[in-house]
Amino acid sequence: MKTMNRLLQIGLKTTCGVLLAINAFSYTGNGSLGTNLNGVGSNSQSEYHTIPIFKNLARMAGGWAKLSPWTALTSSQLTSEGIPKLGSYGGVEVGVKIISNGGKYRAGTYHVYYSGSANWDARWEGSNLVEVSEGHLTFTATPSLNVGGVLLVIKSMTTQVTNIRIVHQNFISNYTSDPWDPEFINDINDFSVLRYMMWQRINSSNVTTWSDSYYNGVKFSGEPNIKEMIALANKQGAHMWVCIPHKADDNYVTQLAARIGNDLNSGLKVYVEYSNETWNSASGFSQSSYVITKGNEIFPGQGISDYDRGMMYTAARARTIHNIFEANAKLGDARVVRVVAHQAANGSNCGRILDHYKNLNNNVKAEALAVAPYFGGGDWVDDEVTTSQGIIDWYYNENKTYGNAKQTRGWMDACSTAAHNRAVPLIGYEGGQHWVSKNKSQASLDRIYAANRDADLYWVYRNYLDAWKYRANENGGGLMCMFASGGRYDHNGCWGHRENMFKAKTQADSPKWKAMIDWTADNPKWWSVTAREEVSDNGLLSAVVSDNQGINMYPNPSENEDVTISIAEGDSAQIEIFNLQGNKVYEAVSSGSYKLKSSTLAAGQYMVIVKCNGISKRSKLVLL
Length: 624
What we know:
The chain is of the alpha/beta class.
């Protein structure tokens, strides 16, 4: 459904007129957006997931704790399966939050299956616990906005409890054969790439060596395993995007590549990235200091700084990982996308890490520069606005120097230039809004929540994605993996595309999700299979010169004259015109040739895109 052809070569002219070779992605499906998948497991507060991933809620539960007072059990008090270990915690009552998301979950009867012997209870919004038979309980859940969810309690344990499953009555018949919650599946149906960074718990990972448990292990309150990740990609017909833990050895990489090569459908690709944000020195990203340490060990005295040597190590390690994946006979270079990622806010270093990758690897280039051009970051959400509408308006305010569309477009421009100058496609590993309160005041949080629920955010997202498309298209790239699949809004951010399963999939109720779905439907796989594109001095796409790809427009340039856009008689075409900032400024539908009035647009340079019979054609228009 969403398969991907082999990377093809197209030509791209630089401002000096030199023809460069550039890799361009081409899906046989229509998806132009991917998605990051929200975290799972107790460390990710998965009991807060308002769009459950698994039908078995034991996989989505929080962490076990003693109840009086609430004290989290340590790893030594849990079995390898993640269940309280008999005799290790003093025999007191222990409980786990299996649902805790403000009343936004399914009401009704839940079934609990387990092995072993214990005395149970269901509390808070859970009640009427009944032992149906040995190893089988039921309880009733009644969602409420004012209580903490459902607490499942082991009052006492006689023999070790194992293999706990917690399933809503609707899914009893198929939760083993089809483990994914249909709300989750429906939310990600339109995304062509699934990035598993959070499911892999990549940030500050301590993984060093391979264990088969990473492939097929199942834990209470545990993230999906690699086998499940592959199965989900196959189910969705979506390409995989995997990240390699920063300390992982070569055997880990070899084993992971082997599992993916064996299990992933042959029509699907795997994007391979070393770690995540090795440039990011913030708390929770220990990979940043690690790559600097390794860089100083391996490249002493080289580069221009400790940070630069960290980039050198990142580039060198990434290429080693890519080599291992490409050496797998069932993957090879045809199915592996060599991703090098860096900070969107530093286009210069984006270029530098691409140079390191090539220079340290026998002139072999990366196949994608991946960046995360978020909008909205900064303290201004606390200090400089007083309403949610103020947050929305900030995006459009061209007079601001940070947190707005102008800043993000500047990042995109710089990254696009870095990628284009090295003939490497530009893609996005993350993207979307980044409104986060630093002081965590309730007033700031309420403004951010309201802005994320505002129907006008629909248009913000479409504008943002239009700007991305315009810039990524300049160098054969395009894919953007938005952040992230559905989830609760809280003080850590409003990252979920859709807030909860009861929000309608409309602009009014789910503006971010609706904007992405509508936008990808309107902008299917715009990156071309065969086009050779020329770039003028100002970086604007000036013409598409491959067969049957240009648009006949005359006069062009035009000075106060109507412009005729030639379209074959009887063909219905959609016409879109973008300015240099990537904003759509005009659109029309025409059967046959279309006359653009001279008074329609101000003097300047524009990109004209004509979509007809499933083909997109584009050319530059100059109005004097």
